[in-house]
């Protein structure tokens, strides 16, 4: 689990367009990434309509753990350094609603939270909790 390192490079728009036109493979790879992200965004938006705040919150934490997680002794530490406010924006819910869900998940021993920190301590347990909510 986790993410790979990379390098950030700022390219002026005219130079980027010139490079993209001269390098169709680069353009195709970039369009594939954009297409995947749009598809994932659509799926996530559809889940907002059909699922409640607890489901969306737990699902997002599992997704982040898989995508940005690093294994530690505590569990899977999400390396985003995001706040509860940002989590509530991602799941399209009030901070109070997300805090209530996090309290339930903490008491169940499924997550640990601190300022700008989320750790999924029991991935299998959180998946079970999520599947019970989906019924």
From TrEMBL:
Q: Which SUPFAM superfamilies match?
A: Winged helix' DNA-binding domain
* Domain HTH crp-type positions: 51-124
Indicate what this protein is called per its UniProt record.
Answer: HTH crp-type domain-containing protein
Origin organism is Kineosporia mesophila
Q: Which Pfam families match?
A: HTH_Crp_2 (PF13545)
Against InterPro entries, the record matches this protein to: HTH_CRP, RmlC-like_jellyroll, WH_DNA-bd_sf
What superkingdom does the record give? Bacteria
């Amino acid at each position: 689990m986790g993410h790979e390192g990379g390098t950030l490079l700022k390219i002026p728009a005219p130079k980027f367009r010139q490079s993209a036109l001269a390098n169709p493979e680069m353009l195709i790879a970039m369009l594939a990434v954009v297409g995947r992200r749009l598809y994932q965004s659509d799926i996530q938006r559809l889940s907002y309509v059909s699922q409640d705040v607890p489901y969306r919150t737990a699902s997002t934490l599992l997704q982040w753990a898989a995508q940005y997680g690093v294994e530690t002794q505590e569990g899977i530490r999400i390396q985003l350094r995001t706040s509860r406010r940002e989590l509530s924006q991602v799941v399209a819910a009030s901070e109070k609603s997300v805090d209530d869900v996090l309290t339930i998940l903490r008491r169940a021993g499924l997550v640990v939270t601190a300022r700008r920190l989320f750790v999924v301590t029991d991935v299998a347990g959180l998946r079970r909790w999520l599947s019970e909510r989906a019924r």
